[in-house]
Amino acid sequence: MFTPLIDGFVRIMDPWLLMMCFFGTFAGTLVGVLPGLGPSAAIAVLLPLTYGADPLVALVAMAGVYYGAMYGGTITSVLLNLPGEGASVVTTYDGHPLAKQGKGGVALGLAAIGSFLAGTIGLVLLTIVAVPLAGFALAFGPAQYFAIMVLAFVMVSSLARGDMVKSFLSLFLGLVLATVGQDVVSGQARLTWGTLELIDGIGFIPAVVGLFGLSEILYDITHPADEVKLSSVRLRIKDILPSLADLRESWGAMVRGGFIGFFLGILPGAGATIASFVSYGIEKQISKTPERFGKGALQGVAGPESANNSASSGAFVPLLALGIPGSATTSVLIGAFIVLGIQPGPRLFTDHADVAWGLIASMYVGNIMLIVQNILLVPFFIWLFVVSQRTLPVIVTSLCVIGVYSVGNSMWDIWLMLIFTVLGYGFKAAKIPAAPLVIALVLGSDTENALRQSLVISMGSPTVFFQSPICLVLFAIAGLSLLYPLIRPRMKAVVETE
Asked: Which stretches of 34-90 are DSSP H helices?
């Protein structure tokens, strides 16, 4: 296990890869800070720009955006009581009161150190867990692959925020769109309506850029928020560095948050937001002074911020080892893998070991880059937040149009992107999650092939899906995932009240 990891570190020392790692983590922090742009939208915008690039270069940058964004939202959560990400909501409970007490810099420093420590814990656990899990999954046949695809669909849909019926509606639409194009078995054109451009199916890049990139910008333009002023905030590096007493008070919360975040991050649909709430609830329960929580407790910042960063490492376990995404961001990432010619899942560590271990090694390096950036560059991020409020829509729209057109030099892709932009806008207005549609569009073809292969092997008998213990376990987990949304609101209410 450690030999390929060392090989990954050797490869990541390439200056170009180091630069991409820095770019990804830096861009990720900006994504967390800037209003109206989450990590899924940012990766969607970057995706066409990386088309045709070396897979490891592109994935290192996009992964950096993902785990880097976990910290960026901390800055506005603490200083403005304005969370940039759902995972940063709980940080406002104690972060903003600390800022009012003149300790906003200390809160940001503890968040940066906690994110580094917990991120390292998560990466060590990722290194240990991912390979055995992938090795176990190598025994999967077509029936097991179909079962795991069903599990992925159910988890992404049933554990998404909002109405579960809307989630499955999004999933169904994605599965329909995945059937557009030429049937691999019969060669017949399906749902193309005589349009030659649809013979190869619906392009993933125009779809995801429209759904997550342009639709976000369009929605923010039509639903403007009050402009926030940060120009009066002044933070120096010495204001951000916590004292030894602050570290002694908070290090336990950081370590606990690291383990909590990783194991909740593994669960598709749980992720960083739930991890941060669970960490906050536990810290409040075990604290000798629980009355301080909500009024400026350092553990109330250190624990949740550590948990949400470690959760991003945990999310890579099912993504890399099983090919299962657990959120909108990892749904876009799995599409990025496939666009770059790499199938995430059990064979990733055998067929593309250099990419898998290079990516994991880059996350160790990126974690170090993040702590340096998030201590030295906070004043720059604050300034950029003020400037971006008016310029961000123009920049993102330009990148989307140029990037999508450059992939195939086709206006058809632009029109397709605009169609999905309108669809994404409608989804946001109706509060329908787009992640199930994306994952169905990405995995729909593989799911159909696994289903057909299984039925061919069994001479058309559906009992093939119930003869394997692995299939039974996966279907059972999928069934439990359908029940989980019924009890999740009660669990969250208990955590918040406690």
From this structure: 39-46, 55-80
